[in-house]
Specification:
Elements (H helix, E strand, L loop, with lengths): L17 H16 L5 H7 L4 H4 L1 H24 L1 H21 L3 H10 L4 H14 L2 H11 L1 H20 L3 H21 L11 H12 L2 H31 L4 H29 L1 H24 L5 H27 L6 H25 L8 H29 L1
Helix pairs in contact: 1-7, 1-9, 1-10, 4-5, 4-6, 4-7, 4-16, 5-6, 5-7, 5-10, 7-8, 7-16, 8-13, 8-15, 9-13, 12-13, 12-15, 12-16, 12-17, 13-14, 13-15, 14-15, 14-17, 16-17
Length: 404
């Protein structure tokens, strides 16, 4: 049960409204996906190879991981509100810098600085865990991360349209405006949810061995890492596959990239409705099964010689549904190992997740070309989803033994 006052929109003396939490998670996801249809155009304008410009994706993942390691403990010590406020102000500045960049190096520098927006995702989850018990937190995280499904679903479409008609810099003008708007929203709405001025760093460190030595913590973390890895591998390779394998233009690429996030919205809705009733471990396991089966069938069809954009991106909807079930439930489990270190657990777990996802994205891109088709990318996504299922199955087994 929550012991905080009921949330009221635009009242910073109460916990943040659900709308604010959804937007915190959503804008974090939007920053990752909005500019993807423009990746080829940015590489061409700055006269660099696609592989170099892909640092804007894989390097961004690494920077996101580092940010998450830092902001979790900071928010446990100083509170969620000041950390989120500073992060979105920096994000707005970095977005403006990327928009005005005159070289590939400056663009990549500002792009990596944009990773500070990951604070919104990390701390929206931590706020939910501040307010609710484990199973209820999984349900609420499902609703909060609905923003993570809606924003990437419309993000590539918006980005593709902006690229098609106004050029790639318009994408970063849009993100600048979003950063400024979110800073204002947080200022007026997000009340503090950390009690008693937070936990000192020395006290946090004393709890680290218990957190890092917990098998359930690592099981939940690896479950989220491999589940996200399948999706991030898709993000890293989708622009090349869409344009060079299937011949899609930027607008079509944006629409295609929205298909898995449509499934993610469905999975998030189901998590919000049923996690309390069914339990987080079973929900997460079913998510990995759905993702693995859908992607596996897609790979089998491709191996049989049937490849098309409709089949490839259509089957990615199963990845979205599966991850929509897996991510909020495994995340709630991860944050519940030591509840008063929810910010630290969210940041550390998120960092490991993003680093693993970045590695898988890099692997997928390194083996992709117009000659290989979509097969290497599909194989990476299937393997990652299966490993996610193994991780949550081991957690479930551990819990059954512990309660036997």
């Amino acid at each position: 049960m929550s012991q905080h006052s009921p949330a009221r929109l635009f009242d910073r003396h109460t916990p943040p409204h659900m709308f604010t939490l959804v937007m915190l998670a959503g804008v974090s996801a939007l920053s990752m996906s909005l500019f993807l249809p423009s990746l080829n155009a940015i590489a061409a304008e700055f006269d660099v190879d696609y592989g170099v410009m892909q640092i804007a994706v894989s390097g961004y993942f690494v920077a996101t991981a580092l940010i998450q390691i830092i902001v979790g403990p900071l928010s446990d010590r100083f509170g969620r509100r000041p950390v989120v406020l500073l992060s979105f102000a920096v994000f707005a500045f970095a977005s403006a810098g990327a928009m005005l960049a005159g070289s590939g190096n400056w663009f990549l520098a500002f792009r990596l600085m944009q990773a500070v927006v990951a604070t919104g995702l990390v701390l929206s989850r931590a706020v939910v865990r501040d307010l609710y018990a484990q199973d209820k937190a999984a349900s609420m995280i499902g609703f909060v991360t609905f923003g993570m499904s809606v924003m990437p679903m419309i993000g590539p479409f918006i980005g593709g349209a902006l690229q098609q008609y106004l050029g790639w810099r318009a994408n970063f003008a849009f993100l600048t405006a979003m950063g400024m708007g979110m800073t204002a929203l947080v200022w007026f709405d997000q009340g503090e949810t950390v009690k008693n001025r937070g936990m000192p760093f020395a006290e946090q460190l004393r709890h680290y061995p218990a957190l890092l030595g917990s098998l359930p913590f690592w099981g939940y973390v690896m479950c989220t890492a491999f589940a996200a890895g399948a999706y991030y591998a898709l993000l890293g390779g989708a622009s090349l596959v869409a344009s060079q394998v299937f011949g899609l233009n930027p607008l079509q690429t944006g629409i295609a990239l929205g298909t898995p996030t449509l499934g993610y919205a469905v999975g998030n809705y189901l998590s919000g409705r049923f996690s309390v009733r069914i339990g987080i471990n079973r929900m997460a396991l079913w998510g990995t099964i759905i993702a693995s089966c859908g992607l596996g069938l897609s790979l089998i069809i491709a191996l049989a010689g049937y490849e098309s954009a409709l089949l490839f991106f259509g089957f990615c909807t199963f990845l979205g549904v599966g991850n929509g079930l897996t991510m909020p439930n495994a995340t709630a489990g991860m944050l519940s190992v030591i509840p008063h270190l929810a910010g630290t657990a969210s940041g550390l777990g998120g960092a490991i997740m993003v680093l693993g996802a970045a590695a898988l994205s890099g692997v997928a891109v390194s083996v992709l070309s117009a000659d290989t088709g979509s097969l290497p990318l599909q194989a990476v996504m299937v393997a990652s989803s299966v490993m996610s299922g193994i991780a949550i199955a081991l957690v479930s087994r551990h819990h059954r033994k512990a309660t036997a």
